Known about the structure:
alpha+beta; Alpha-Beta Plaits; 8 strands; 26% helix
Amino acid sequence: xxxxxxxxxxxxxxxxxxxxxxxxxxxxxxxxxxxxxxxxxxxxxxxxxxxxxxxxxxxxxxxxxxxxxxxxxxxxxxxxxxxxxxxxxxxxxxxxxxxxxxxxxxxxxxxxxxxxxxxxxxxxxxxxxxxxxxxxxxxxxxxxxxxxxxxxxxxxxxxxxxxxxx
Length: 166
């Protein structure tokens, strides 16, 4: 008996970096997401520059990607962490500066509460660096009140260059 292919799920991933050519790290992470098995990158936000929020170091470059994937949520988390590791991600302490940070924000309508993974991401509404790029790719999800709540966090939407890449 052949198994039917797993149903595709729409997931949203926050991307951020503030070390080691941070802008390029985020752009390369979009490419890495597109290459994941059983996954298609369907849209991506503009790039944003943000002041560190609950973190240290130089400004961050942030974005959000929308993907359709047949990977399970734990397998997707493993794949995201592998991309971070390939980018040289170290975790010397909580909120340390980073070469790349990939956070799984939403995985379809899944609600997961485990020691390893919480979905939706528990702090997605508290961070301008998530809300503004998420509004680019999923405007129905981000409410005006959400944006007003984070209005004091420093964030700048970066213009696209001539190639259409922010």
